[in-house]
Design goal:
There is one protein chain. This protein is an alpha+beta fold. It has a single domain, classed as Double-stranded beta-helix. The chain is built from six helices and 17 strands. β1 and β2 form a beta hairpin.
């Protein structure tokens, strides 16, 4: 097996080729993939052909896949979510949903958000449908030292249906919403494996900074979001069929683009890996 790694952009991202994830991976290959992900934050494994159960089993090399019921589940494998251009808000107004259309990091409304997300390109439109990523290590490091000291101890309330959300979210049942208690996370988190510090933002889920007046909270969150999504921190992934893209939610944000032709289908399978409460 000849594992090849290609850097995709200066801020982050690398492409891996030369492996078939249907095959059992040697310990050295698993370690190399983990190292590449820590270094690049976004990792694209090219040219895969994965049935849902094989996708899940391959991703166990990175941690424990967990079930997420907020998105459609694959009938053959509960840990695999289906994200499609045909998605509709079935419990709400029935209108089209574009999952992830605003900058965010997955699961921040949960007290123990997922650590990693894996997205596998099953059907890719002829143009558009890119996913953008932003490097939150770099965004934090580039803040003036005085600003870093100011925000280092702050915490933020995250909720599923935030009043600050920039895009529609899927309607949930009354029972599901009742169980969806708010989460409080640090504004700056320390990655549990690399020890590096990163901004922890989710413009689609953040409600308010704890201890600040609402106007101060809004101003700070807007300022940090604008800073963290500057082009110099971004990588834009142009999908190919068979791409499997893995990213680290503890040090990135991402967003989906729905700018592909309406007549064409975009179909992705998604897995998330269990994580811990941010610190």
């Amino acid at each position: 097996m000849l594992l090849r790694c290609e850097k995709l952009a200066e801020p982050m991202a690398a492409a891996i080729s030369g492996i078939d994830l249907n095959d059992a991976l040697a310990a050295a290959v698993r370690a190399a993939l983990q190292d590449a992900l820590h270094e690049s934050l976004v990792l694209c494994i090219r040219d895969q052909r994965l049935a849902p159960a094989a996708f899940r089993e391959a991703m166990r090399s990175f941690g424990t896949p967990v079930v997420r019921t907020q998105l459609a589940q694959h009938p053959q494998c509960r840990e695999v979510n289906i994200i499609s251009s045909e998605d509709r808000d079935e419990l709400g107004d029935g209108k089209r949903l574009v999952n992830g259309a605003h900058w965010h990091t997955d699961d921040s409304f949960m007290r123990e958000p997922c650590s990693l997300t894996m997205l596998y390109g099953v059907e890719i439109p002829s143009s558009g449908g890119d996913t953008q990523f932003s490097n939150m290590y770099m965004a934090y490091a580039d803040l003036p030292a005085a600003r870093r000291r100011c925000i280092d101890g702050l915490k933020v309330v995250h909720k599923y249906n935030s009043s600050r959300k920039g895009t529609r979210v899927a309607s949930l049942s009354v029972q599901a919403m009742a169980a969806m208690t708010d989460a409080i996370h640090p504004l700056v988190r320390t990655h549990p494996e690399t020890g590096r510090r990163a901004l922890y933002l989710n413009p689609n889920r953040m409600e308010a900074v704890v201890g600040l007046e609402r106007s101060q909270s809004e101003e700070l969150l807007d300022e940090l979001t604008a800073h963290a999504t500057q082009q110099k921190y971004q990588y834009r992934h142009r999908w190919r069929r068979g791409d499997l893209v893995i990213w680290d939610n503890r040090c990135t944000m991402h967003k989906a683009n729905a700018d592909y032709p309406e007549a064409e289908k975009r179909l992705m399978h998604r897995i998330v890996i269990a994580g811990d409460a941010p610190k």
